[in-house]
Design brief:
By secondary structure, this protein is of the alpha/beta class. The chain has helices at about 35-50, 65-75, 125-145, 155-165; strands spanning about 10-15, 55-60, 80-85, 150-155, 185-190, 195-200. The chain has one domain (about 10-205): 3-Layer(aba) Sandwich (Rossmann fold). The protein has a six-stranded mixed sheet with strand order 3-2-4-1-5-6, with helices on both faces. This is Histidine phosphatase family protein.
Length: about 220
C-alpha cells in the first residue's frame, strides 16, 4: 500500500468518542463499553473531518468504542478496519471501580499501595511501555500509508503518551492537563521517516459535554 518510504505521510491518532457509562466507572480494557448516542455523532464528525483527506489506512484498538469510532471514517474511504492491539487502552488496576476519595476506590486503604509511584505509574502499565508500543504501531502505519494518510483510533492516555514521547518530553504528567479531548485528532506529519510536525484539532469541540467528566479514556 502507498508509495515507497519517501514523501510526506501523516499518521492521525483519533481518540474515540463519548462512551455510555452511567455508573461512572473506570472502564479501561473491560469489554462491553460502547459509544453513547453523542459518541456516535462524534464518530460521524470525525469521518467528516477526514472526508477530503488522502486516507488509505484505518486501524483501530480492539476495544468496542474504538472500533465504533473507526467505522464511519473507514466506510467513507471504502476501507476495511485493521485492528492493532498495540494501540489499546493502558492497563489499570482500578478497572471496574469508581475512582475517587469519597465512596470511590481511594477510600479503601488496600488500594493505596497502587499509588506509591506516580512516575512509573504503579497503578498500571508503565508509561515507557505505552510509548514503545504506540510508536511501533505508528511506524508501521506510516510505512503502510507512505505518501498518504493513516488514521489510528486509540484512547486518551496512549495518544497523549505517544505525543509526549515524540516531543521528547517527560512521560509522567498531570492527567488534568492532557490535550486530548473526546474524538480529537493528534496528527504526526513525516517526511520519509522523519517527524516534522505535530498538530492537534477537535472536530467535535462543539459537541463536548460542558463541564461533565467522563470516566475512563
Amino acid at each position: 500500500m502507498g508509495d515507497t518510504g519517501s514523501g510526506r505521510t501523516v499518521v492521525h491518532l483519533l481518540r474515540h468518542g463519548e462512551v455510555y457509562n452511567p455508573d461512572g466507572v473506570l472502564y479501561g480494557r473491560l469489554p462491553g463499553f460502547k459509544l453513547s448516542e453523542l459518541g456516535l455523532r462524534m464518530a460521524e464528525r470525525a469521518a467528516g473531518y477526514f472526508a477530503s483527506r488522502d486516507v488509505v489506512l484505518v486501524v483501530s484498538s480492539p476495544m468496542e468504542r474504538a472500533q465504533q469510532t473507526a467505522e464511519p471514517t473507514a466506510a467513507a474511504h471504502d476501507l476495511a478496519i485493521g485492528t492493532d492491539p498495540r494501540i489499546i487502552e493502558a492497563g489499570n488496576v482500578f478497572e471496574g471501580q469508581t475512582f475517587g476519595v469519597g465512596d470511590g476506590s481511594l477510600a479503601h486503604p488496600r488500594q493505596w499501595k497502587h499509588l506509591r509511584n506516580p512516575f512509573r505509574p504503579s497503578w498500571g502499565e508503565p508509561y515507557q511501555q505505552i510509548a514503545d508500543r504506540m510508536q511501533a504501531a505508528m511506524a508501521d502505519a506510516r510505512d503502510a500509508a507512505a505518501g498518504h494518510e493513516a488514521v489510528l483510533v486509540s484512547h486518551q492516555l496512549p495518544v497523549w503518551i505517544a505525543r509526549l514521547s515524540l516531543e521528547h518530553k517527560r512521560l509522567w504528567h498531570d492527567p488534568r492537563k492532557r490535550e486530548c479531548a473526546l474524538a480529537s485528532v493528534t496528527s504526526f506529519t513525516y517526511e520519509g521517516d522523519r517527524l516534522v510536525e505535530i498538530d492537534y484539532t477537535e472536530p467535535s469541540r462543539d459537541l463536548l459535554p460542558g463541564a461533565s467528566k467522563v470516566a475512563g479514556a
